[in-house]
Structure formats: structure tokens, C-alpha cells
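Hi there. Long-time user, first ticket. I'm pasting a complex I've been working with (about 557 residues overall). I'd like to know whether the download I got is complete or cut off, because the file seemed smaller than I expected. Thanks.
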Amino acid sequence: MLHLAAILAPATVGFFDWWQQARNTFSKVVGRGFNSLVMLGAWILWKERNNILFNGVPPRLDRALLLAQEEADHWMLAGAKTLRGLVAASHGGEQQLL
Amino acid sequence: MDVLNNLIGKACTEGLLQPLSTRCIHHRVSLYADDVVVFLRPVASDLEMMDALLQLFGAAMGLKTNIQKSCVSPIQCSEDDLAMVETHFPCEIQEFPCKYLGLPLSLRKLTRVQLQPLIEKVADHLPGWKADLLNRVGRATYVQSVLTSVLIYNATALELPPWCLKAVDKIRRNFLCRGRKERNGGHCLIAWPKVSRPKELGGLGILDLQKFGWALRIRWLWLSKTEPDKPWAAFPVTTNGNAQDLFALAVTSTVGNGAHTKFWTDKWLNASSIEFLAPHLFAHVPKRKARRGTVREALMENSWVQDIQGHHSVAVLVEFLDIWDLVQEVVLQPEVDDVHKWKFEASGEFSTKSAYEAFFLGAVLEPSNLIWRNWAPRKCKFFLWLVAHNRCWTADSLARRGLPHPEHCPFCDQEDETIQHLLCSCVFSRQFWHQLLRRFGLPDVAPRGNFGTSYGGIL
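Hi, the file is complete. Here it is re-exported in full:
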């Protein structure tokens, strides 16, 4: 079982420590997708930070998430199989739940 | 090569060509593709003979010599000699440090002037206006695959001096930082020694020229061990001490007939060398004998015992008895060749890559190896690499350099902005991660902890 509390970064732990710990809770295949996703997330946060600082837009979570979703779509088009695996797995999981 | 070499060899043994020097020189000709170099004495009979030989060779093989395109380089010749040569071979005269197969040939260590063209060659590969269109990642790739690989051929053949490597490093570094040859300092985000480490060790995977040069030149040691019949095997190849040490460490030999295994220094006795097994005993063996003696020679009527000289202490005698016992068990197989194994490759064959990596053995792995193994655009990986080294221009880094910087984190406007805060401890980014992971189905399998309820109001 995966524990969400363990995955989400505690305030005191560094980014890479969190990444490493969270990565270790996943299987090899899911972990690869997770790694890509973390890189994507970090990249989006950095872009969003620059957007806020240099273009003076207010911080909005939904915009950041939208950007992340778009970027992820681009990555998947460009061949990020591990990310696609995550998406496929999550859809499969939902169907099972239904 | 063989035909011309045999022709000239035959002429030498028949006494038609005068010997080059009193010292034993095995080869006076080298032919690779259509590039040939011949060493001759400036004597009329020799020159005529060589002219005839070349014509004979041309008629037989179709590789005719074009005298107009050839050149003569006098090595310690007098003016009279030169004039005489000119009458026989009416071609261009070049000063001696000449080039053969793109490499400078010289009697002595290469000077700065002779190596300068090599550095200029690297600089010539810098892209002009295109450099501005490359981002840092593109430039890193360019440094690795163009600016570094230009050197490989030369670095294999020559032991490049430190100043030369430094000059090339300067070009590579400046290009990576700024996209051009010159730079005004302070533009490097990460110190060059760190950049030029392998990716697993927190670097950018750009080759360290010095270590790579050593690794390239270990190949000579390897070839002289495994293919001693090659024509150049008799040449003295100078390699750095570090390269020799790594080679001694990494090669183990399985003795067949013992002809190509050194008795004292090679690792052949229980995958260890006698030098290592019996250091006191080895200290009593003269250097020259330790370097030369093969297993076959040493085991012939136990002649290795005669190599040991001087007064023997108890330690030496004890080691001697141990080695004696070990050596008595060895049985040579005359029809089986020695097999040498390179430790760092599964196949046992030498590879420069494994040798280069071996120079970093024992270094501490860094978390940044999470970055490189996974799918992401290179620019993202590069960014995360900067994060791993804490080299992003966040408020704390800007403040340290006295540059204008934002007061607080732009997301939460509460705490100071550091890269760690920005990416994982900020409230905003924690929400972002939670949502993002949920969208990709990762927390779906996780229990609904207190996270959802406590932050639910904000969402």
C-alpha cells in the first residue's frame, strides 16, 4: 500500500530527500513514471515562479495544474512512455473502482 | 604495409640499404592507406635504391608514388646532404617536425608551437552565430560531442601536456557558460571540476580531459600485452603513472605458456602479483629484471631465484618460501597462449569507457542520479541538476551576491524564497504536488489521510 502522507513532502525535508523516499515506495515501473512526473512538476513550479515574478501575475494553483497537464500531454506526445503508463494505469484503476 | 615493409626489410638484410643507427630499429617504413613515411640515410645509393623500390611497389600494387606531392624532411642533415637529396627526389623540403597521419612527428617532447594548432582546431569547431540559438543544455551536448571528441585521436596518440588540456578546458568551459570563446568571469553556475564529473557523481557527464587522456592511453598498455606481435609493440609508449597503476590493478592474467606474462609484476599467481604477495622479496629484485622477466623464462629451471639479490632478512626468506611453494604448483602449457582479462568489463576486453569510469571508483554517489535515468526533456534535467547543486537564482542566492531579489516566496508570500522551499515545503507547491499526483492516479491508491480534510477548505 502507498501512503499519501509519506509521499507528500514534509516541511523540513529537502526536495531530493523527499523525491528519493517517495520513489522508494513505488514499484520499478510506477517509479519511473513518478520520476518523470516529479521533474515535470518541478519544472512547472519554476516556470510559474518566474511567470509570477517577471510578469506580475498572481499565483494560481489551477493555472499551474493546467500548465502541468498541457506539458505532460506534450511530453507524452514526445514519447514519455512512463508517464503514459501512469495515465493508463490510473484510468484502468478508475474503471476497476467503478 | 606488409609488402612494402618486406621489400624494404629484404633490402636491409641484403645490405642494399644502410642501417639507420647503431640501435636496433625494427621498422623504417609505415604505410597507412596511402600515407607512407620512410626513414632513410642521406646516401646516394640508398636514395636510388628507395626510388627503385617504390617504383617496383607501385608497379606491383598500383600505389604509385607522386614525387611532386611528397616531401622530404631532413633530420639532423647537413646542407650538402640536403642538396644531394634534392637531386634525387625533386620535391618540397619541410622542416623536420613534420606531420604523419595528422600527428606531429618529433624527436623530442612537443613544444607549445607544435601543439598550438591542436587547440586552434578545437576553437575552430565553435559554432559562430548558431551559439546564441543554443540553450545551456544544447551547449553541454555540443561540448561533449564536438569540442571534446575533436581531441580523442590526438589524445590517444600523444600524451598531451597539462597546459594544453587547460587551454582546451578553457574553451569548453567558456562555451558552456556563455556560448563563446571569451568570458568575463562570474558566469559559471557550477565550478568546472564539478561539471566534468560523471553524471552519477553529480557532474554533467562532460569528460575530464586529463583522466580521459589516461584512459585512452591505457589502450596502448593493453595492446602491448594482448597483441605483442603488432609492429609497434616494441615502441616505448610513455603513459602517466596513474594509468600504469590502474592498468596493473585491472588486468589479471591466466598463464598458458607464460610467454607474455611478466613474472614479478603481472597478476597471474592466484589473481595477484608477486609484487603484491611478497613486497619484501620484490624489493630485492632489480627493477630491470622485474620489468622484463616473463613467467616462462622465470620458471625455466627456476631461474627467478637468481633475480633476487642482496642480503635477506627473515621476512624476505619467509616470503620466498611462500612464493616457492606457490610457484612449484604452476604447470605451463606450451601450446596455450596467456589470457589477459580486464577487470572492469564483463567481457574481459579493455574499453576506454570502463577505464575512465574506474578513475572515479570510490567517489560518493549523489542523489542527482535520479535525474538522468528518467524520461524528461534535457532542459528539465539540466534545471533539476542545478537544483541538486542549489544553483538556481532564487532569492537566497541573489541576496548572497548582493543582487536585487524578491522579499518573499512568490507563491505563499510568507517565507524566504529558497529552492527547497519553492519546490517542496511551500504550501502552494505542496498543494500543487498533491493535485498533480492525484491527477496521475498516484494517490488514488493511498488512504485519504488528514491531508485532504485539512487543505480541503483552501482548494
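A couple of notes from our side: Residues 444-459 of chain B have pLDDT under 50 and may be disordered. The first strand of chain B starts at residue 29 and ends at 32.
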